Amino acid sequence: MSAIVDAARPLINASRFRAAHEAEWMRLEALLKQIEKRSVRVLSDDDLLALPLLYRATLSSLSVARETSLDRALTAYLEQLCARAYFQLYGVSDLAWRDLGRFFTQGWPGAVASLWRETLAMAFLTLAGALAAYFLVRSDPTWFFGIIPEGLAGGRDPSASAEVLRATLYGKQEDGLGIFASFLFNHNAQIAIFAFALGFAFVVPTALLILYNGLMLGAMVAVFADKGLGLNFGAWLAIHGTTELFAIMIAGAAGTRIGTAIAFPGRQERMAAVVAAGRPAAIAIAGVVLMLAVAAVLEGIGRQVVTSDAARGTIGMAMLVAWLLYYYGIGRRHANRSRD
Question: Each residue of 64-113: pLDDT tens digit?
């Protein structure tokens, strides 16, 4: 009689054990089915918080099942459930690729499109600075040395002859394309980062930096135009400049968005206004880094290999059109949806 009782004891223990913990297993399995069929994004905040706790509880149940030699079917079920949960929590999935895809197709262009007013203001400041410097240097070449540092000019100043200036447009770089590209990427990245970071100081430093960037552009154009090489310089600059200047304007726009939120929070608390402004600004500045990387490639390789003015201008304009379509075609739709 006692042998019969001892044989039945494991089955009774297994039933009690299942009854005590089955609700946790069933909830974990239901959450895993939602993730596997769709995405982790379909889970509520409570479910997301419960997921790792349910996994650990089920893992503990599996340990008990193995140690006490409960029925094999239950142990196998728990092993399978824990493996599925582990994969979703710690394994490699396609969520990162999905997020990356959303960044390029929605997040990045949508963020830049939402900054269109600030970007337009930065474009105006750049153009105003360029025109002012152009006419100043054309009227008095000594203005050039007050605008552009000697190291940055690299011999391309009013004292250079037309032959020397032409050689800088069509000659080969002695230090190699990669070094030249790296230098310009670092220089322009610094301008973009400062334009963004200085926005926190109520926008004014950002506006001045963007204006100064336009002054440098206009002064350089004036030097080449004075020697009859204005169009040649424009083509030389366009192949990478349309991307680079656009990126710097966007960086300034992102800084301006944050700066205006600090200065004029409206009905929101200042910190809440800054956080709301910071989301699109941060995404936009991440895209600016990628734009500057593209500009560096065009600067260090494309512009030095392509020597035809027509080809340089075509590439530059094609890049500008591509960015405009990307931001204000694709991006505008997502910016409107996010507001709705």
Answer: 888 887 778 888 899 999 999 988 887 655 556 777 888 999 999 999 99
Cα(259)–Cα(203) distance, rounded to whole angstroms? 5
- Do 158 and 137 touch, CB atoms closer than 8 A? yes
Please check the confidence at residue 2 and state whether its pLDDT lies above 50.
no
Judged on CB neighbours under 10 Å (0-12, 13-18, 19+), 267 is exposed
Residues 38, 35: Cα–Cα separation, whole Å: 5
Tokens standing for residue 10 = 């494991």
Residue 185 near residue 293, CB atoms below 8 Å: yes
Cα–Cα distance measured from residue 117 to residue 39, given in angstroms and rounded to the nearest whole number = 35
Is 137 in a helix, a strand, or coil? helix
Q: How far is CA 190 from the centre of its chain?
A: 16
Backbone angles phi, psi at 200, to 5 degrees: -65, -20
Assessment of whether the complete model's pTM goes beyond 0.90: no
* Dist. CA 336–CA 294, nearest whole Å: 27
Q: Which candidate, 76, 228, 12, 9, places its Cα nearest to that of 138?
A: 228
Residue tagged 């494991």 (tokens): 10
Burial class for 238, CB neighbours closer than 10 Å (0-12, 13-18, 19+): buried
Q: Per residue in 144-160, pLDDT tens? A: 999 998 777 878 899 99
Rounded to 10 deg, the angle between the 2-37 and 45-67 helix axes is 150
| C-alpha distance across the termini of the chain, in Å | 74
Measure Cα distances from 278 to 48, 95, 192, 199 in Å: 25, 24, 16, 11
What does the H/E/C string look like for 279-337? HHHHHHHHHHHHHHHHHHHHHHHHHHHCCCHHHHHHHHHHHHHHHHHHHHHHHHHHHHH
